[in-house]
């Protein structure tokens, strides 16, 4: 977007977000959609009760995605935390789309340490997911347990921190994904593999390759075109999307990025509607294939100063895109 159009968007979106906060009479009624429209709760607040209140009362939604709460990664919740969280969900009549597990967001053993590994960064994973490869079976088992306790059939996973050269390890990685999917399947759980810009499967085209290699009925894709854009697939929609087997899309994350050539990352996050992909077109395409699973807001952008303020602006953009897509 041009600086002028982006400022115009942010001004309008900020006004919409302010209406949610300042005018209770304007708060949303239940939002109807063919999709399970959701928000990752910790993109709003670490206070799970407050985050759920915003999602249900201000946004008018019935679904939430769980990744962390009360400053803990979801993997670190104990029985008391789980009981407390379920009481909050009941209070706001929210259902859980999936468990946002950090499964396989680790280095592949025997390979060079990835430049995206926490070992190469000044600080650890921002979502408090500091687990080793040896702990991944434990992470998988805990994720399955959490899915059952939170009444969902989906657990997110990743494709290991990105390697400069995947080729020597790719077959073994695919086999590990097949094995994990088989374990999940025994418990009637689906793994949804997120194309993550810092991991080996980052784009739509890479996701198509991984899905072709991992022929398991228990593994589907968590399609995140914003992540694909961050990795440089600027045509994530429609190019990356067109490469995907549509019957294996099991979850969808909603966010935007803009290309920033010459910077260290090469991109920056943007509010929904303020970058790529074109979510009106993407929502129309999801609707056209009969997709009825989650479209879950994963804001990431922090341009409004706080997670909650930024998520309110991104939700305003996402809601507008859903409405324009008649979804």
From TrEMBL:
Signal peptide segment: 1-28
Keywords noted in UniProt: Isomerase, Signal
Matching Pfam families: AP_endonuc_2
Record domain Xylose isomerase-like TIM barrel: where: 56-312
Protein origin, superkingdom: Bacteria
SUPFAM superfamilies recorded: Xylose isomerase-like
Single Gene Ontology MF annotation: isomerase activity
UniProt xrefs under PANTHER family: HYDROXYPYRUVATE ISOMERASE, INOSOSE DEHYDRATASE
UniProt-recorded name of the protein: Sugar phosphate isomerase/epimerase family protein
The organism of origin for this protein: Acidicapsa dinghuensis
High-level lineage: Bacteria, Pseudomonadati, Acidobacteriota, Terriglobia, Terriglobales
């Amino acid at each position: 977007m041009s600086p002028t159009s982006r400022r115009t968007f942010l001004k309008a979106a900020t006004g919409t977000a302010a209406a949610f906060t300042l005018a209770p009479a304007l708060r949303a009624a239940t939002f109807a959609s063919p999709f399970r429209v959701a928000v990752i709760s910790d993109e709003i607040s670490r206070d799970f009760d407050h985050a759920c209140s915003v999602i249900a009362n201000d946004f008018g939604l019935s679904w939430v995605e769980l990744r962390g709460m009360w400053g803990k990664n979801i993997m670190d919740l104990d029985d008391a935390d789980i009981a407390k969280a379920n009481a909050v969900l009941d209070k706001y009549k929210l259902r859980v789309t999936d468990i946002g597990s950090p499964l396989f967001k680790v280095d592949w053993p025997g390979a060079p340490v990835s430049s995206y590994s926490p070992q190469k960064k000044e600080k650890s994973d921002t979502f408090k997911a500091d687990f080793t490869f040896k702990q991944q079976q434990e992470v998988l088992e805990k994720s399955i347990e959490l899915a059952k306790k939170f009444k969902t059939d989906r657990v997110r996973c990743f494709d290991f921190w990105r390697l400069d050269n995947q080729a020597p390890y790719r077959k073994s990685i695919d086999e590990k994904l097949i094995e994990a999917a088989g374990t999940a399947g025994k418990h009637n759980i689906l793994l949804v593999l997120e194309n993550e810009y810092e991991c080996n499967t980052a784009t739509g085209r890479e996701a198509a390759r991984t899905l072709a290699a991992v022929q398991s009925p228990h593994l589907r894709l968590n399609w995140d075109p914003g992540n694909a854009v961050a990795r440089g697939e600027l045509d994530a929609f429609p190019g990356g999307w067109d490469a995907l087997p549509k019957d294996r899309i099991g979850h969808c994350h909603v966010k935007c990025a803009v290309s920033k050539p010459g910077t260290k990352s090469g991109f920056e996050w943007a509010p929904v509607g303020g970058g790529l992909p074109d979510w009106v077109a993407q929502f129309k395409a999801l609707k056209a294939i009969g997709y009825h699973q989650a479209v879950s807001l994963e804001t990431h952008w922090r341009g409004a100063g706080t997670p909650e303020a930024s998520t309110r602006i991104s939700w305003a953009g996402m809601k507008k895109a859903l409405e324009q897509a008649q979804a």
